[in-house]
Specification:
By secondary structure, the chain is α+β, with helices and mostly antiparallel strands. The chain has 8 helices and 14 strands. Helix 5 runs antiparallel to helix 6.
């Protein structure tokens, strides 16, 4: 990826104190133009990082929660234009300035806004305007946040910081912002911004107050299940003053808030299948994980009602799993040598066991 540097402003952030007693300081060290950058050692440190940032994939609805790289969308009130969003204006002005001193001043404003947030952390912050020559004639803005190496006690000579930057800061855990978002090469989304930060830390989300993020797939599915349960209650008990409905709603809240949940025994199997099918449309490979007694089960939600069934066995539960064949992992087990009994033999044995316990 061919990148041409337009401007780069380098700042050092110092966070002193803790929790409410912090003294957040920052200092501008240098602002470079294209010629300065080409002749500086910081190019050797940074240049390969831009390709990494551009090539990181960030689906709007990530497959898991608390991902490191995510896409944000600038928020505007209905009927308003994109330039009504303060965060957009900040990046857009940086993006379109063609004056070194103006870029320095705008970068200073950005760093000041960042360091006044509760999530601000010390280190180096680098604000960049650069063009991706083969992608777009309009430049991109990159915000790079680097941590200092632990062995560096302090910086004594600001004139040498940039030329010796590889000795002072680390790119191994670099946080970044890229604007605008480029979901595919050549596709530019001016409403969107891509951030990369240590998960679950949220270095930039407090800073970007007017940016929103789509739910992850697990969050969408969780919300879909809760909404379906709420709709079931509303349809079954129309009277909002009904004590039964109020108890059902209370039970739903407790169930949704619990980390470890038991089977609720409220829906018929077909109703479960119908709701599951809507979830599978969102994510066909959504996993089904549960624990029956001391046995952990991991499969696909799509298997429920087809290859996986849950039934009662007296006051216990039984799980029936059907498949074409077994696959055993490393480590031998005597079960691998089994000649399985018929389903009828096993179910009759289980029924006899339940009957004997009842006696």
């Amino acid at each position: 990826m061919s990148l041409s540097m337009n401007y780069l402003s380098f700042f050092v952030l110092q966070i002193e104190g803790k929790d409410g007693n912090q003294n957040n300081l920052y200092k501008h060290y240098q602002t470079l133009d294209q010629d300065d950058y080409e002749n500086s050692d910081i190019k050797n440190f940074l240049h390969k990082e831009f390709s990494k940032i551009c090539n990181r994939k960030a689906p709007k609805n990530p497959a898991k929660e608390n991902v490191s790289t995510k896409v944000g969308t600038f928020v505007v009130e209905p009927g308003n234009e994109l330039n009504s969003n303060p965060n957009f204006n900040m990046f857009n002005q940086l993006r379109h300035t063609n004056d070194k001193e103006s870029f320095k001043a705008m970068s200073d404003d950005l760093v000041r806004q960042y360091i006044n947030t509760t999530s601000a952390r010390g280190g180096a912050m680098i604000v960049v305007q650069a063009s991706l020559d083969s992608i777009s004639s309009d430049p991109f803005i990159f915000i790079l946040k680097c941590d200092f190496e632990q062995r560096i006690a302090r910086i004594s000579d600001e004139r040498q910081l940039v030329s010796e930057v590889d000795m002072a800061i680390s790119a191994s855990n670099m946080k970044s912002i890229m604007y605008p978002h480029m979901p595919e090469e050549g596709m530019i989304e001016e409403w969107e911004i891509k951030i990369h930060q240590s998960s679950p830390a949220k270095y930039f989300e407090d800073f970007l107050k007017y940016v929103t993020y789509e739910q992850s797939i697990p969050e969408i599915i969780n919300q879909h299940v809760i909404d379906s349960a709420q709709n079931y209650i509303e349809n079954k008990w129309n009277d909002t003053t009904s004590e039964i409905r109020q108890q059902e709603e209370h039970d739903l809240e407790l169930w949704a808030a619990s980390d470890k949940r038991d089977i609720q025994e409220k829906w018929e199997p077909q109703q479960v299948i119908e709701v599951a099918e809507k979830i599978i449309e969102i994510q066909p490979t959504i996993e089904l994980k549960m624990k029956l007694g001391d046995t952990r089960i991991s499969g696909l939600l799509a298997d429920y009602g087809y290859r996986l069934h849950i039934t009662t066995l007296g006051d216990h539960y039984a799980l029936i799993i059907e498949g074409d064949g077994f696959t055993f992992e490393k480590g031998f087990s005597p079960i691998e040598l089994l000649q399985p009994e018929s389903f009828e033999v096993v179910t009759n044995w289980l029924i006899d066991q339940v009957a004997s316990k009842a006696e």
